[in-house]
Amino acid sequence: MWFAYPDDLQDEGAFASSSSLLSMDELSRSQGFRFDRDRREFIAARALVRSALSYYHPIAPDAWAFQFNAFGKPNVHRACGLNFNLSHTFKLVACCVAVDGEVGIDVERQERAQEILELGEEIFSAAEQGQIEALTGDEKGNHALSLWTLKEAYIKARGVGFSLPVNQVTFFHEGTSDIRLQLESPFCGDDRQWKFGLFDFAGHRVAIAVEKSTPGQLQLMEARPPFAPPSPLAADRVRWMRASTGST
Question: Which of 59, 104, 172, 195 could form a disulfide with 156 if both were Cys (CB 3.0 to 4.6 A apart)?
């Protein structure tokens, strides 16, 4: 899991070096943003993905090409055994790279907890709403934030987008090391086993979903700016939870 910071691109040299890694299409898309903040976020995210992939496979960062599945999930065009997923806000970019296994990641600013809580039944199942209602005060928003990031990470790992209704994906999670995932949709036939990581980083809630068969241990890296050689971070902050899928 790699982290970078869009604000690092306020430096003109860092902005130019990050931009130089992007494809012509990506550069064209970056010009479509009205605000510099959004442009920096987009460029930082694309530069980080390319740099992270090149760390694990001998291809230059600017040489990577991507393809998209029917639901818009990007994958590397070359058959190199790497899968990745990306999430970003205007303050933080996160990319996770996995070998021979699906992966999904989501980052949300902690200050969005109340906003997410107020979405209620639009994004939470009845069972999840029950979990939230059993709490008091700030615990409600904090739990809603955790549930939402877990949902997003799982849906992104599945690669089916919002064709899998978020309020039909239920996480039974009470803050312990155990978690149960229940699906109530046409996609509930998926019998893959998953593990989930949840932690706070740089003012954000971070969730990751990976197939249990994915080999190796999680490494945390920080790249400042996004194209720079990474610095390792302590991975013991990640709280892992194992889960099995099921349907009602």
Answer: 104
Task: Give the CATH number for residue 10.
Answer: 3.90.470.20
What's the pTM? 0.92
How many distinct structural domains can be found in the chain?
A: 1
* DSSP label at residue 26: H
Name residue 108's beta-bridge partners.
205
List the strands of the sheet with 220-222, edge to edge. Answer: 82-88, 93-99, 2-4, 220-222, 231-233
Cα(8)–Cα(95) distance, rounded to whole angstroms? Answer: 16
In angstroms, the CA 103 to CA 99 distance is 9
pLDDT per 10-residue tile (average), the chain, 248 residues: 98 98 97 96 98 96 92 85 95 94 94 95 93 95 95 90 82 71 64 81 95 77 97 87 57
